[in-house]
Amino acid sequence: MGGGAPMPAAAVTPMMEQYIEIKTANPGSLLFYRMGDFYELFFDDAEKASAALGIVLTKRGKHQGADIPMCGVPVHAADDYLQKLIALGFRVAVCEQIEDPAEAKKRGSKSVVRRDVIRLVTPGTITEDKLLNAAESNFLMALGRVKGTPDAYALAWIDISTGAFRVAETDAGRLLADIARVDPRELIVAEPVFHDPELKPVFDGIGRIAEPQPATLFDSASAPARIARFYAVATPDAFGAFSRAELSAIAAAIAYVEKTQKAERPELARPEREENGSTLFIDPATRANLEILRTLSGSRDGSLFKAIDRTVTGGGARLLADRLTAPLTSPDRIAERLDSVSFFRSEPRLCQAVRLALKGVADMPRALSRLALNRGGPRDLGALQAGFEAARAIAETFAATPPPAELGAALAAIAALPAALAAHFGRALADELPLLKRDGGFVRAGYDAELDEMRALASESRKVIAAMERDLIEETGIRSLKIRHNNVLGFYIEVTANHAAALTGSDEAKARFIHRQTMASAMRFTTTELAGLETKIANAADRALSIELAVFETLLREAVAEAEKIRAGAEALAVLDVSAALALLSESEDWCRPQVDSSLAFAVEGGRHPVVEQALRRSGEGPFVANDCDLSPEGDREAGAIWLLTGPNMGGKSTFLRQNALIAILAQMGSFVPAARAHIGVVDRLFSRVGASDDLARGRSTFMVEMVETAAILNQAGERALVILDEIGRGTATFDGLSIAWAAVEYLHTINRCRAIFATHFHEMTALSNKLGRLHNVTMRVKEWEGDVVFLHEVGKGAADRSYGVQVARLAGLPEAVVARAKEVLRQLEEGEVAGKTDRLVDDLPLFSVAVKREAPRPAAPQKADRLGEALAALHPDEMTPREALEALYRLKGMAGE
């Protein structure tokens, strides 16, 4: 905390002594130390925060002979600064004053106001609206591992802002993929596990979100007791049968929540176990390549999620993202979701009514969580009330329309919302609610008689006094009687000396009108009623706020007591939101309901890429060209097909590859798909190797990354997998790359036996279709016109004989001299010895010993008439489609014009 020689203990101020003590107890966190209206930071914390937040670094006194660096942020703006620090990966310990400064003064002039850390703010434990994205979950994840069984892992993840709590077993091989699927903001790991060299690639892969914690948090022996204590049950067995690794992860997550939330206890759902194999496995590279939730640059814009999101609530957006990242593998469960979408699509008026009702729904789970943690305000109560009202309105819209199973279950959860609590909220809460409860004014007029009276006294004291004055005049008959006020007597009754006898003429009058002061021409009195009214007026505002705070606490306790039902109702509203949103999407984008079953089929007619299609529409560049894809088993074959896709760069190969992977994801998440028709046999594992990237931090070149990802696919894909591969082997020498790609296709066909699309520029590989029965050649069609190439973006049967790389280079703007020279070099290569050497090499390798049809060397420069004649003789009009005939005509016309 500073250099120099140690100072005598007496030289350390009491305040700084307290700071150092609290900071020492909270290593690894920036300490927000409350000083009046500011949170102040000192020493290294101040230097780090100043640099991170861009605020002034100053100094405050000395410690051990050196200046103490200091910076501060206003308490009222703390959330904004916390948001920046959390986004940068910092953890913050919030230290508050826990006693009245007046109490500290009573203990002596050198006494310091008692302070303590009330909360640790970490990326995985935030609840404030300003710090959260409404459309994204904010998961804290714990990794459990049992001693003696190094491959027995489990993951437990909590969203403290909503109470969601899930757990699943995993293993070392799929650990990184399972973490990537959940995408936690923070991962806690036992220190010995964190430093295990075998897991270093996993922690390197997820970055700085991993946080080592004491191993005691993960003790599986004490885990059941910790879980039972948190949920106030005798044993966690009632929640389900969990493995030791799962219990370790669950207990660690709970322990970390308790550690960060200090005295507050969040309302967490009981841990829900996810069965292995219940969701589609997507490895991290595939998840990144397909840009499911974010693009490769980290943006939501351009992602699949952004393209399909039509939800109107935060809970609905989070559920949509959850389903998109974890598609199902059960055809029955998928069918239930599809039934919900079909129902809303067939009931457009009801769909619109539901969406209209949902637009008024705030984020109920997050509001409930803040209330449970004593961080909530009146608007959080209002969020629950709005949810209750929307639920009632939605239930009424379904009164005459029986829904399918999934929506029926959602409506049952909505009906189970506590009606008495909803009615209480409706009576108690005002229409306009302040942000902070200390501001008051959130309780509806007429709810509490005393509160109404206090408000009237506080805001209309003159009218109240005037009313009492009129009553006294009427009672005594003294028209000149006045009720006045000064700072010495307060409120008093004043009459002229002539009328004083009327207030003192009898014992009864003397008892009621108490003499306060005699003046030259007047006398002043008070009464018990007036004195009481004066006290009420003086304390009315404080009393009114006190009553409102008591009402707030009552509503809070009632809401927390019904947390389970409220959370279930909120989840039901999210289900309705997602189903209605997907129905609207399918209608507006002309998507079809897929047939999803347990077969090995994969047949898509008129498939489109959902993101690219929308981008083309926005830019006005024309319609998206739809294409078919059929990888279904043929005849009595037991495995799906492999398509070997050739064609030019810029022809649309990568788009075609990705769109079929995305269609599989959409179908299995329970959505309609961008196609005219789709039949998807459930895919259990999805692998995609599309695009080039490197990993220089771990010493991996682009080609090395490509080989690592390809190896993972070949080692894991089974017959139910869908594999999308693009340009395997292009990162090394031609023959090396061709050999690797050739062998990979043979392995996919013979060993993996999976459904696959393999795109390549190695045209020699098309010969494999003569050897491998389930391999089919397809190509991206192009048209040459006056020396240029026109990309048709159509997939058709057959193989490309060239890649049109030089033409693409010309389109990219390479200098004409370079393009011309490239054409000449390409001609020489194609007509020279290189082609022959390639053929001989293929023959020499046993792996490639298949019949390869060789073409005779081209004549040097045939006459135009001879070339036209040969071209005409090669045509077979009876076997040509209209489009192929048109393309042939264009080619002949081009040859005639040369």
TrEMBL record:
Pfam families associated with the record: MutS_I, MutS_II, MutS_III, MutS_IV, MutS_V
Keyword vocabulary terms for this entry: ATP-binding, DNA damage, DNA repair, DNA-binding, Nucleotide-binding
Family matches, as InterPro entries: DNA_mismatch_repair_MutS, DNA_mismatch_repair_MutS-lik_N, DNA_mismatch_repair_MutS/MSH, DNA_mismatch_repair_MutS_C, DNA_mismatch_repair_MutS_clamp, DNA_mismatch_repair_MutS_core, DNA_mismatch_repair_MutS_N, DNA_mismatch_repair_MutS_sf
Taxonomic superkingdom: Bacteria
Residue ranges of every copy of the DNA mismatch repair proteins mutS family domain listed in the record: 721-737
UniProt xrefs under SMART domains: MUTSac (SM00534), MUTSd (SM00533)
Residues annotated as binding ATP: G647, P648, N649, M650, G651, G652, K653, S654
General function of this protein: This protein is involved in the repair of mismatches in DNA. It is possible that it carries out the mismatch recognition step. This protein has a weak ATPase activity.
HAMAP family on file: MutS (MF_00096)
Family: Belongs to the DNA mismatch repair MutS family.
NCBIfam families with a match to the protein in the record: mutS1, PRK05399.1
Entry protein name: DNA mismatch repair protein MutS
